[in-house]
Amino acid sequence: MRISTLASLALLAAFGCTLATAQVAPPAASPATGRPLVPTAPPTDAEAIDALIQERRLDAALKRADEVIAKNPRNAQVRFQRAVILTDLDRAADAIAALEGLSQDYPELPEPYNNLAVLHAAAGRYELARSLLQRSLDVAPNYVTAYENLGDLYVSMAADAYDRGLKLAPNSAAMTNKLALVRDTGSKLRGAR
């Protein structure tokens, strides 16, 4: 599954997950000097946080996000960045709480549902993850990442079902073959990133 993110997510690699992103493109630069072609304004709060994330200074990025949110609790972009930072810091419970709050305040945004789905899938809560991905697609029917994650989730659910079936019928050649096929497919899907 793919989680909308700003950085790598080792926690989710086993599921091939992808988080939604909130990255900011750098200004165009002169090839000769490397300097911006136009004068640039000071970075926005979101850009400054993104720069800290790119530098892997996650604690500083979280601190800056908390400061911005304290001044402007309705800043959806920084709240989303904060949730992604929490995910990158392996603070899944805090990230889930942040994303749930964001999805309640901004139900029209698909990314929080997507990221919640990935976190829940990583914890084995597949039905909840499926429901959240469907909600993401209800909000944004053209959200490709959610479709990709839904497909990845179904592969994980199939592997889980075959594995459970094999515990009940350990000598089932059919389920053994199907489980091997699904695991191979999942591995290839993760490698297709």
Detail the topology: elements first, then pairings:
Elements: H1 45-54, H2 58-71, H3 76-88, H4 92-105, H5 110-122, H6 126-139, H7 144-168, H8 173-191
Helix pairs in contact: 1-2, 1-3, 2-3, 3-4, 4-5, 5-6, 5-7, 6-7, 7-8
Strand content: under 5%
What pattern of helices and strands is seen along the backbone? Answer: HHHHHHHH
Structural class: mainly alpha
As a percent range, the share of helical residues equals 55-70%
Task: Count every helix, treating DSSP H or I runs of 4 or more residues as helices.
Answer: 8
Largest sheet: none
- What distance separates the N and C termini? 10 Å
Give the overall pLDDT as a whole number.
Answer: 86
Q: Which regions contain 5 or more consecutive residues with pLDDT less than 50? A: 6-17
The rounded Rg comes to 19 Å
Total strands: the figure is 0
Overall, the morphology is elongated
Give a concise summary:
By secondary structure, the protein is an all-alpha fold. Helices cover 63% and strands 0% of the residues.
